[in-house]
Structure formats: C-alpha cells, structure tokens
Design brief:
The protein has 693 residues and is an alpha+beta fold. Helix content is 28%, strand content 32%. It has 16 helices and 36 strands.
C-alpha cells in the first residue's frame, strides 16, 4: 500500500546505549499491531536486532526500520545503535526522519552519547522529542530527569505524558493532551482509565505548559492566548503541529516499555502532531558547492537519495532510499545523477526489520529499499529525468581508530580486501585503504568495537585469519634554513650520452604551504623544455627526505643556474641532476622531522576530568580549553597522532567505558631529541624489512 506524503511520519529513536531504544521499538510494534508478541533483547528475537552479531552481543549495531499503520498514517520507525562506534547509522536515520526521539533513562538521566547527539542537532531546525524510560526503577524520578534535560539540552521539556507513581509504585501514565490515563499493561496493552483525583493538579499544570507551547505555533495563536488565557482544543492541536514542525518546543514522554506503558499516547501523538515530510526540507549541492534547500514535494519529478547500503544473505544487496520528490515506482527506469548512468529499478520494498514487504511505489518523504542494484551506492542521487539535483551527501564523522591488517596466509590477502571493501560500502564511517607511503593496509573506524565486529565476521564467515598491528604514522620532513647545491649528471655509454647540470636554491616555507618552484634561469643556461624534467626531479627528491626518508614539505625551490649539452642533454638527465641537487641542498638546510598533530575533542563525566587531562599531558597534548555542563565535560586539545593510535582503548579504561572522543587532522609540528631518534630508528628498521622481503 502506498501512502501520500501528508500521511507519512518518519521517527528516529536515538540515545545512549542501554536506555531502552530497542525495547521501546519492539513494544511500539506490538502496540501498533505489527507483531502479536513482543520479544526481549535477551531472547535474541526482537524485530530490530536480528543480525548474528547483534543477537550475540545483545546490542544494536545497525539501524533497523519498521512501520506502523496508525489512524491511516504510516509511521516509519528507526531503531539506532547507542554506541558511538556506530554513529554513522544514527546520522543515516536522522537524515531519513522528520522527528528525532532521544531516549533518556529515568534513573540515570541524560548521558554522554545523548548529549553528543543533541549537540549534533544544534544549528538545525529538525524537530526533536525525549522519551523518559524505565520509570519503575528504584532511583527513577521523572521531575529530576526533566530538570536534567533542561540543564543539559538548554531546552525546557514540555510533558505530553506524566507518570502515575514512582519506582516500584509506578502504575502507568496520563496523556496530558487527551486527558486520558493508562494503567500499565504488564503482559498486555495498557488500559484506559479515568484520571485519578490525586493527579489532577499535576495534569492541570502540565496542560497549561502544553497550551503555552501551542501558542508558540504562530502569532495569531499567541495573541489569542494572551487575550483569553487559553486556547480551544482545535487551536491547541493546530498550534502544537506548527510549533513542533519549527522545533519551538521539546515534547517529553514517559513510560516503561517492558510493561507496555506510555506506548498508546506516544503513537497517538506521532499520528496527530508529529510533522509530515511536507514541512521538511533536504539539501541539494550545486557544481560550485553551493547549498540549496529542497522542499519534499510529491508533485515534482522523482528525485531521491540512497542513504544506506546493506547486504542480506537471501536478498543480496539492499539500497535504502529516501524519496525527496515525486514517486519512485517499481520496474522503472531512472538516472543515477551522481555518475550520469541509467539504472533499472526492479522490485521495491518496505520492511519490518529483516522481513521485506514488496510494494509498487514510494511517495515523496517515504523510505524504502531497492534490491539487487549492482551500481547504486550510498550518497547517490537518483531521478526520473535530468532534474539538476544532486543531494548533499551524509555528513559523517571522520574515523578515530585505525589498525593495520593483513591476512595471515598471503593467498587470502585479495579475498580479505574484497570483504573489507564491502564492509566500507555498508558502513561509511569505516575506511579501508592501502597506504603506499607506509606500505600497509589500514582500516579505520569509530572505535575498537566496530572494527573488531567487522574482523570477527570475516573470520567466522570467510574463515580468513587476520593479523593486526598499530599502523605506522605518516611523518614528514622539512628544512630549517636556506641552502644551495649543484649537481652534474654525466654518463657516457657510447653514442648519445647523458648530461645535465643544475644549481638549486632552497628555503623553508610557512607550515602548511607545501611546495613552491621558481625558474630563475636567465640567458638560456638551461632551455625551457628541460625545466619540466627539473621539476620532476625535485618531486622525486622530496618524496624521500634525508632524515628518515619521509616526504618533504613546506619547501620553496628555485633553479638559478645550470648547463646543458646540445647533443647529450635530455629531460631525463635534468631530472636526475635536479633530484640529487635537491637532496644535497636539503642535507645542508638543517633538515628536521615533522609529526601530524590532531585536534581532539573528548567527552567525559566531570569525575574523570582530572584523570583524562593528566593522561593527555602525558601524551604530549596541549589543552586548548574545556566546557562543562550538567556533569559532562568537553575537553579540546591538540595531541600528536602517534600518541592517539590506541586512544579509544586508553579512554575506555580511564572512564570505565563512558567517555568518547572525536579527532581530526590539525597540522604538522617539528620533533627532535629522543622522539626523533626513535622515529629514525623505526624508519631504518622498516627499510631493512622491506629489503629482506
């Protein structure tokens, strides 16, 4: 069945690991009539955690999708992983959704990953809500968690449902919007009952706050509220729809999913108040890099974005697609606007977890799956005709943890590479490259857990044993002063010989400027047709420095003189002369080693702040600043890359697994003394190893 754009609701659940996203997802499918029995995470039979890796580890590793038909609305739900190792799938779900629901544990309050997710939404107008879970826990306190959310999110949550009872006395929830109470259902759905008298004051106070949020919907409603002190039910409904679509308030829900509590009011709110894709926008990118907002519109020619690629044992390659404009139909011809090639869409599906359901078409705003496309890949834009639209790629973070790998048996190296390529296609935060400089195959990801799961899967499914090690750092070399050198390349072998002489001046450039070349030859000492050979020789000389044979950077080079022979000179002769002249000049120019410095952002609980900062100082880190709010600190620092190769492991140890971090390249900085000596020794050992192989 196809749903029009106005009848679609896309909702992503996200939050810190262990806050109950998968359980809530499962119980909502039960409440929505999709499944007849709700399973637990421990059972390994939930709709969303269905891969062997998820069942074995009892955590979500990939985003799962399912849908509920509620009052004629199609509600697409996305269950996302809680670990920062799998943040790429969270970002995919955010892109696919018009509402993000952050789950918060009723006992522990807002945790680090949830704060990071909320910060990731800052600067956007994407609507968001919170669902406070596990309110029957011994330390659960709804009001305290609301205060915690207000402090850490800098938004005042507006309760849509409030709990009846606390901890062991939890009985159910009250829907403030509809004025209905629901007793927890335990093994069955929650049941509607009259609101108990002792909660009426709390309901009235929450209703007043809800009316105030509705008045934010538009100026007319605000004027009515100021004049009359209230809004009619119809105006309140209208105002909430408008205010949420513009992210003007933060709805807060309460419940205990394992007791089927808080589910019906949540689904009713999503069906009646949550924004449809019609009020949302996507982003297209022009050839010049400019960005333009694109309204999701079913009346325009079909255009869609491939948001995810996965592989199923039985169905093969699955391409997840979010339709932005028009309608995508099965058995239709499309254009891959990203590479300009034509493509045939065969069958089209929606899904309930791993179960595919064949459909004929998807309207703008809907999310579905194209199967068995050999060429479609994540971030591709597809369209029915030339629309000029190329949608902005997913904004994914850079990997923070890398290891070098190779197959234990050399015969398996090619096969290992094939499966690493596939893993990188499925998860765009996972990278697989061969580093020609360090002669290593390096895989990178968001953390040790993500990488280990990929390697364990290869070992289990493909029977390939893999060796791992810390990767080599890509050091650089530069110079500290000006120098000059000349070199004459002369070789006579009978017939035409080889002859070329060059005189080079070199000098240091500011860090990050790379390389500059200038031809200062006057009077034809070296003809212009040999200058390209000189530049090639300099490039070869810079490719292997004189300290530890690392590439040379931040150097300006000028050819100031030279000599040629009318018969024996050639471009090759001048290339060889320039290469050797550069190397000789560099030896005289105070050559030095450079190491990559990274920008590091670390998120930790305040109680670990001192230990983390002390550890960073021991890693030669430079603390740039820190911010702390609500018990969570962010530390910003510059740290040598060589000190961060195992930082995901170190930080997990220091913070009992609660800390997380992000890293990005900053600049290169000089090193000397014992550190430089160790780098040189390691480079010499690597060279000997290469020669032996």
């Amino acid at each position: 069945m196809s749903f029009s754009t106005d009848l679609i609701r896309n909702v992503a659940f996200a939050g810190h690991g262990g806050t109950g996203k998968t359980t809530l997802f499962e119980r909502l499918l039960y409440a929505g009539g999709v499944i007849t029995r709700a399973e637990t995470v421990d059972s390994g039979k939930t709709v969303s955690d269905y891969t062997p890796e998820e069942i074995d580890r009892k955590i979500s590793i990939r985003t799962a999708m399912a849908h509920i038909d509620r009052d004629g609305k199609k509600i697409n739900l996305f269950d996302t992983p809680g670990s920062s190792d799998f943040t790429g799938d969270v970002i995919i779900s955010f892109r696919a959704s018009e509402l993000v629901v952050l789950t918060v544990d009723g006992q522990t309050g807002v945790q680090i990953e949830t704060i990071k997710l909320m910060r990731g939404l800052e600067g956007t107008t994407k609507p968001r809500a919170v669902f406070i879970t596990r309110l029957d826990g011994d330390r659960a306190d709804f009001e305290n968690v609301l205060a915690d959310i207000k402090e850490k999110f800098k938004m005042d949550p507006v309760p849509i449902t409030i709990p009846m009872g606390k901890g062991k006395d939890f009985k159910g929830v009250i829907d403030v919007l509809t004025g209905k109470a629901y007793i927890a259902g335990e093994d069955d759905l929650e049941k509607e009952v009259p609101i108990p008298g002792e909660y009426q004051d709390a309901v009235n106070a929450a209703k007043e706050k809800l009316i105030e949020a509705a008045a934010e919907g538009n100026d007319s409603l605000m004027e009515q509220y100021i004049e009359n002190g209230t809004l009619s039910p119809e105006d309140m409904q209208k105002g909430l729809v408008q205010a949420l679509a513009e992210n003007k308030f933060l709805p807060a829900f309460s419940g205990v999913a394992l007791r089927n509590s808080g589910l019906i009011p949540f689904l009713d709110f999503i069906a009646t108040v949550a924004p449809s894709p019609q009020v949302s926008k996507d982003i297209s990118v022009g050839k010049d890099g400019s960005e333009t907002e694109v309204t999701i519109d079913s009346s325009k020619p079909m255009a869609a974005l491939i948001i995810k690629t996965s592989y199923d044992q039985f169905s093969g390659k699955l391409s997840w697609v979010k339709v932005i404009n028009g309608k995508l139909s099965a058995d239709s011809d499309i254009i891959n606007a990203t590479d300009g090639k034509k493509e045939r869409v065969g069958k089209l599906y929606t899904c309930q977890g791993k179960k595919l359901e064949e459909i004929r078409e998807l309207s703008a705003g809907d999310v579905g799956i194209i199967t068995k496309s050999a060429t479609l890949k994540t971030n591709d834009t597809i369209c029915s005709a030339e629309t000029g639209l190329i949608f902005k790629p997913l904004n994914l973070p850079e990997p923070v943890h890398s290891i070098a790998v190779n197959a234990t048996a050399k015969k398996d190296d090619d096969k290992l590479g094939e499966f690493l390529v596939r893993a990188a296609e499925e998860d765009k935060t996972f990278r697989y490259i061969f580093n020609g400089e360090t002669k290593e195959t390096v895989i990178s990801g968001m953390g040790e857990l993500q990488i280990n799961i990929i390697l364990d899967k290869i070992k289990t499914n493909q029977k390939i044993e893999v060796e791992t090690r810390v990767p080599r750092v890509a050091y650089r070399e530069t110079i500290g002063k000006k120098a000059s050198a000349e070199y004459t390349h002369k070789k006579q072998t009978g017939g035409h010989g080889q002859y070329g002489k060059v005189v080079l001046d070199i000098g240091p450039l500011a860090r990050g400027e790379g390389y500059k070349f200038e031809n200062k030859i006057f009077g034809g000492a070296v003809p212009k047709n040999y200058i390209p050979g000189v530049e090639k020789g300099i490039a070869e000389g810079m490719a292997h420095g004189t300290v530890a044979q690392y590439p040379t950077v931040d150097v300006e080079v000028a050819i100031v003189d030279g000599k040629y022979h009318p018969v024996d000179s050639s471009e090759l002769s001048f290339k060889l002369a320039a290469r050797n002249a550069f190397r000789e000049a560099m030896r005289q120019a105070n050559p030095t080693l450079l190491e990559p410095i990274m920008n590091l952002s670390v998120f930790v609980e305040d109680k670990y702040l001192g230990d983390v900062m002390s550890d960073l100082s021991g890693k030669r880190g430079k603390i740039l600043g820190q911010d702390s709010a609500g018990g969570i600190a962010e530390i910003r620092a510059e740290v040598p890359q060589a000190e961060l190769l195992r930082y995901s492991i170190d930080l997990r140890s220091i913070t009992s697994g609660t800390g997380s971090f992000g890293v990005a390249f900053s600049h290169y900085a000089p090193i000397s003394g014992r550190i430089a000596e160790d780098v040189i020794k390691a480079a010499e050992a690597f060279k000997i190893q290469e020669e032996e192989e």
